[in-house]
Write a structure and sequence with these properties.
The chain contains 15 helices and 29 strands. Strand 11 and strand 12 form a beta hairpin. Strands 8, 9, 10, 11, 12, 13, 14, 15, 16 and 17 form a ten-stranded mixed β-sheet that branches. A seven-stranded antiparallel β-sheet has the order 4-3-2-1-7-6-5, covered by helices on one side. It has a five-stranded antiparallel β-sheet with strand order 18-29-28-24-25. It is of the alpha+beta class.
Length: 725
């Protein structure tokens, strides 16, 4: 029996025959001579999906970061040097887990290699990479592959190290500023460099960072191109955690990088190199200075000492042309150097260097040194943002998202619009239905699929596929499939769909309200809300001498009718205090809550989560100017503005909103109540979406209340009803 060295859930990464990538969750088991994976944790004599015999001729190849529908995975490939096509490709959502597996597999390979050498068998050792072979760059565990033939390796196996990972190295145009060189000798053969590296001097200390400026000798430096500057700081986090955060282009970047507005992937060159599009958020007189954007190549590697290097340099790309309203800036050199330090008081410490030399372009910027200096310091201050982010956030493994960029050339604008129209008209494919239960976050695909082979075919039309896929999943998750039987529902306030009706309610069109779009976290855009998630079936208009709580217990109310029909209901009770208390209750129903959806998480979550997400969008289409200005149309998180009480029953959730708990809201309410008979008020309720997977936002429901009379309110008879949980 082989001994289990390491085991756990990992990601199977590969490509289908049609060229699209796939990722499956698989259970990997590493034994002393075998690496295997299963669909689930093995029991008894379960047969694995695939196995690989591990001996001294095996290698662990680092394929770097791969993108799958906006998610990033760190990919490793284990293969036998004699039979390269017999391999297993595995991946992890965080680099720490990938490095653990890499280390464990290397230990098994080392043990098998020692056994083979002791038995006199041939072992194909890899070439020992020497720094002098690549213009002075240090050996890196993610830079180079074997450069010797098997025969040469065999002759030198007793003195050569086994290189465990491969890569293509940084592009020739990208300057590796992290290397220590003397007098800029490494740059003498590069005509693209406009300066020679010399020394750094400290120019200021700011936000706990040391800011350095480079001392250099140049033949020519554009006035708008700044000297190279770098910020150096210490962050209490692991190198891997900092690296993952720096590589992400999702909404979390807004929390630590104040110069970031939007970022997307233009082209994935390989696992270590990518072309990115980046919009800068610069706050130097934005009324007069056009915003800047960038198109640059990003290269990264992990050195053998555990440090990470991320390098930037601008590059033109046919799919990332100039954008209207933006000035295309140019990065001459830049990036991050993330190096481990000795822990202190049991906490990890890492030194982060962020270098940037940028030409902001545009006429006149060279005549305003303060503009160049201010913007550059704003970008370098991201190191302080990283430090504070980790100080105030518990470390958690995130799945960074980076949207894929479509062709941005001006010639493709019209065709892109046509393509979007065609995509929106396409019905979800059968694949969407198969993936429904396993893809609520568009990450795990086809869990029970037997397709686990790799195909080296270029990935085509991935973005169009992912857009249709996400739209199909959103529709399948959120929209009710059948119409709800509205018979039996009634309320004290009548429904009337005519425009000039009084003292009534009707359903308001969702297109009257604007909600967060799919890419709101990147560009802050909003879109018309569209179809509601739940059906508004009744409205009650109550009054009493005391506040009316838990109105769902009233016998015969819409909540109880919905429960009898097997429907889930949401009752929103807007409480108006005064000498006479008023309550307007809106009843929304749906067939069932979709497990894993945002609405289900809201209904079953705790009060803290509910308060942070329950949102109201008000509007006054008809009324006096002072009332319209006082109410406004700005979305409001009710749970943070006023006191909300949540009552969860077996088939319902009631939200009692005490408007009088806020002094400001109470003042506005007093103004509204005085002229309520002249008003037409629209209200939309929704659960706020904060992450890419929760967007675009969807309305729970919307209502229009027209010319309500205070005298039409009735006194409810509240009885014991369905018990709350």
């Amino acid at each position: 029996m082989s001994k289990v060295v390491y085991e756990g859930w990992m990601v199977r990464y590969g490509r289908r025959k049609i060229g699209r990538s796939f990722i499956h969750m698989r259970y990997f088991v590493l034994e002393t001579r075998v690496l295997a994976y299963y669909k689930r944790k093995p029991q008894d004599n379960m047969v694995p999906i695939k196995t690989l015999l591990v001996d001294g001729n095996c290698r662990v190849e680092d394929r770097g970061l791969k993108m799958h529908h906006g998610h990033t995975v760190y990919v490793l490939c284990v293969y036998n040097k004699k039979e390269k096509y017999h391999r297993i490709t595995m991946a992890a959502f965080n680099i720490q887990e990938a490095l653990i597996w890499k280390e464990k597999i290397e230990q098994v390979i080392d043990q098998q290699q020692d056994l083979m050498m002791a038995n006199g068998n041939k072992v194909y050792a890899s070439f020992q990479y020497k720094p002098g072979m690549d213009n002075g760059r240090n050996a890196s565990s993610s830079d180079h592959e074997s450069q010797c033939s098997p025969e040469e390796e065999e002759e030198n196996h007793h003195t050569l190290l086994r290189r465990t990972t491969i890569g293509n190295g940084p592009p020739e145009s990208v300057l590796d500023w992290t290397q220590e060189v003397n007098s800029g000798l490494s740059n003498q053969n590069n005509s693209d460099q406009v300066f020679s590296r010399k020394h750094w001097r400290l120019v200021r200390c700011q936000n706990g960072l040391r800011i350095f400026e480079e001392l250099l000798e140049v033949d020519y430096l554009p006035r708008s191109c700044s000297r190279a500057m770098q910020a150096v700081g210490v962050v209490e986090a692991t190198c891997e955690s900092i690296f993952e955060l720096i590589m992400s282009m999702d909404g979390t970047r807004f929390e630590w990088d104040c110069s970031f507005q939007y970022g997307s992937l233009v082209q994935e060159v390989d696992g270590h190199t990518a072309i990115l599009y980046h919009r800068l958020q610069l706050d130097w007189f934005p009324m007069f200075v056009w915003p800047r954007d960038l198109c640059y190549v990003r290269y990264w590697r992990r050195n053998d000492d555990g440090s990470y290097v991320v390098l930037f340099r601008s590059r033109e790309h046919p799919n990332c042309g100039p954008q209207p309203g933006f000035v295309r800036a140019h990065i001459e050199s830049g990036g991050f150097n993330i190096s481990p330090l000795k822990p202190r008081n049991g906490r990890p410490r890492t030194q982060v260097q962020h270098l940037m030399q940028i030409d902001l372009k545009g006429w006149g910027v060279g005549y305003f040194p303060s503009f160049q200096q201010h913007c550059l310091l704003q970008m370098l201050n991201s190191v302080a943002g990283l430090r504070e982010w980790f100080c105030q956030t518990d470390e958690s493994h995130m799945v960074p998202r980076m949207p894929m960029m479509v062709n941005m050339t001006l010639d493709s604008v019209s065709s892109k619009k046509k393509q979007k129209i065609q995509e929106n008209s396409v019905q979800p494919s059968p694949l969407v239905d198969q993936m429904h239960s396993a893809s609520r976050h568009s990450v795990m695909l086809d869990e029970d699929s037997d397709e686990d082979e790799d195909y080296q075919i270029p990935e085509l039309e991935q973005e169009a596929y992912s857009v249709k896929l996400e739209n199909g999943i959103k529709q399948a998750d959120e929209e009710p499939s059948d119409q709800i039987d509205l018979s039996g529902f009634s309320g004290s306030l009548r429904r009337d769909d005519r425009d000039k009706s009084r003292d009534c309610w009707r359903i308001s069109d969702g297109s009257n309200f604007r909600v967060r779009s799919k890419h709101f976290i990147y560009d802050k855009t909003k879109i018309p809300a569209g179809k509601h998630l739940m059906e508004l079936v009744a409205v009650d208009w109550y009054k009493d001498v005391k506040r009316m709580d838990h109105v769902a217990r009233r016998k015969g109310c819409a909540v109880q009718v919905a429960s009898e029909k097997g429907l889930f209901s949401l009752a929103i009770n807007l409480q108006v205090p005064g000498s006479t208390h008023y309550s307007m209750v809106f009843y929304f129903v749906t067939k069932q809550l979709v497990p894993g959806s945002l609405l289900q998480r809201f209904a079953d979550g705790d009060d803290e989560f509910r308060n942070s997400r329950f949102k109201l969008i008000p509007s006054v289409p008809k009324g006096s100017w002072i009332v319209r200005q006082s109410v406004g149309s700005t979305p409001c998180l009710l749970g943070k503005a006023v006191d909300c009480t949540y009552i969860r029953g077996p088939k319902y959730l009631e939200i009692d909103v005490d408007i009088g708990s806020s002094t400001v809201a109470n003042g506005v309410l007093g103004l509204v109540c005085g002229v309520i008979t002249t008003l037409v008020v629209d209200m939309a309720f929704l659960v706020q979406g904060n992450t890419f997977d929760e967007l675009p936002e969807r309305l729970i429901g919307a209502v229009r209340v027209s010319h309500v009379e205070l005298s039409s309110a009735v006194v409810p008879v509240l009885e014991s009803g369905p018990s709350a949980e």
